[in-house]
Design a protein that fits this description.
This protein has 399 residues and is α/β, with parallel strands linked by helices. It contains 16 helices and 14 strands. The structure holds FE3-S4 cluster.
């Protein structure tokens, strides 16, 4: 593999042991995947931030690297932590968990990474341009960056993303290469896509079938970035999709042919099977999750408009980035007056929710519907934001 003189110096330890360790990881992965060279990255999003996933071994790993003097060399953001870093008591997080989570965040801070803690880094300033090479973890953010922005990233794990942030490089393989960005499956969508939740439902059906193929959707007449965010998160959770195209809508599909020769075609005529698969839970609802992936300012406002002046029977968490929450103080107040919580820095799946005793969750996210039964020990109802908030008010899934 070709390395520049500077990369050789990094690898041989001339730039210090922390950079050397980062280069060893990046070069080892590049060789495994057959890269011919490394490419500089414009930004990084590091996943593996919650203490729930990292445990004490993860804290040890991060402290060891920080102790070697590791510093990130490109703009870097963090994925959600296991708690709201300010309001963790309100969230119901146990003190011993909070102390461990703070140790994780401190280790990242010593490496120069701000406490951004969000799965929508593109909504708070980590916004790459089309064609930029980046190294992002977090499957939903990867899918959005590749597909909706047209940037180029593989699905990085926590250590590989951190290594890329420290040495500013990643291997040129996978979705960094033109040839791997071509769709190998055309999806003919024959049913109307009327509701926002239809995009999560479509992601469930196609993600399950395709695993990590690249789909090219035809027949979707219009889609907002919010709907594409939901589609990508569901595709990435139910399968391993990291890149999709939508005919006439996503940036690469608007520019040129993105369908590979010999691509197979599948048809979707109805979303019913997805709604059935994600609606196996109880009619009684004690917990409602909105903001997976993290809510935008408009989503927070949409929630506020639906709960303003009401009193909620079920617990409602709207999860978002702190910078996003700070942009909508009136909406946050309306939600909190109704009895809900707008939590920053965290998400339902990576917080210690099992200890909080919830049993029956409602969500408008295909990704949350996938993870929450196993990660949170709850049954699931999936539908529109409207249905979820009706359930938050009444404590029952609407008929
Ligand atoms: Fe984000 Fe957590 Fe959903 S990381 S995409 S809110 S499962």
């Amino acid at each position: 593999m070709d390395l520049t003189a500077e990369e050789q110096e990094m690898l041989s330890g001339e730039k210090g042991p922390a950079v050397q360790k980062a280069m060893e990881i990046v070069v080892a992965l590049a060789k495994i995947y057959g890269a011919k060279r490394l490419v500089p990255v414009k930004s990084v999003n590091v996943s593996g931030v919650s203490y729930k996933n990292l445990g004490d071994a993860g804290i040890g790993f991060l402290n060891e690297w920080a102790g070697l003097g590791a510093k990130v060399s490109v703009p870097t953001t963090l994925n959600p932590a296991g708690m709201d870093l300010v309001d963790w008591k309100k969230q119901g997080v146990p003190k011993d968990f909070a102390e461990k989570q703070e140790k994780v965040i401190d280790a990242f801070a010593r490496m120069g990474i701000p406490k951004t803690c969000t799965c929508t880094p593109y909504l708070i300033g980590n916004l790459p341009k089309k064609g930029d090479h980046i190294a992002w973890g977090e499957s939903s953010a990867v899918c959005y960056a590749n597909s909706v922005i047209g940037a180029r990233t593989n699905r990085e794990g926590g250590p590989s993303a951190l290594a890329a942030a420290i040495c500013g490089r990643t291997g040129e393989f996978g979705y960094h290469l033109d040839k791997n960005r071509m769709a190998n499956v055309v999806v003919e969508v024959g049913c109307p896509m009327e509701k926002d939740s239809d995009f999560g439902a479509l992601g469930q059906i196609i993600g399950k079938q395709l695993k990590n193929d690249v789909p090219y959707f035809k027949g979707i007449k219009a889609a907002s970035n919010y709907q594409l965010k939901a589609l990508g998160a569901s595709l990435a959770a139910w399968g391993g999709v990291a890149l999709f195209h939508v005919d006439g809508i996503t940036p690469e599909a608007k520019e040129k042919n993105m369908v590979a020769e010999g691509a197979q075609t599948i048809a979707v005529e109805s979303l019913k099977e997805a709604y059935d698969a994600m609606n196996t839970g109880s009619d009684i609802i004690d917990f409602v999750s909105i903001g997976c992936p993290h809510a935008s300012v408009s989503e927070i406002r949409a929630v506020a408009d639906r709960v303003r002046g009401k009193k909620l029977k079920a617990t409602l968490w709207v999860t978002t980035a702190r910078a996003t929450k700070e942009k909508a103080p009136d909406a946050v107040r309306a939600i909190e007056d109704a009895g809900g919580l707008v939590l920053a820095d965290t998400c339902v799946v990576v917080s210690p929710i099992r200890s909080m005793g919830y049993k029956h969750l409602a969500t408008n996210s295909g990704k949350m519907a996938y993870y929450s039964p196993n990660y949170c020990g709850v049954t699931v109802r999936f539908g529109t934001m409207e249905q979820c908030l009706q359930a938050a008010v009444s404590g029952r899934w609407p008929a």
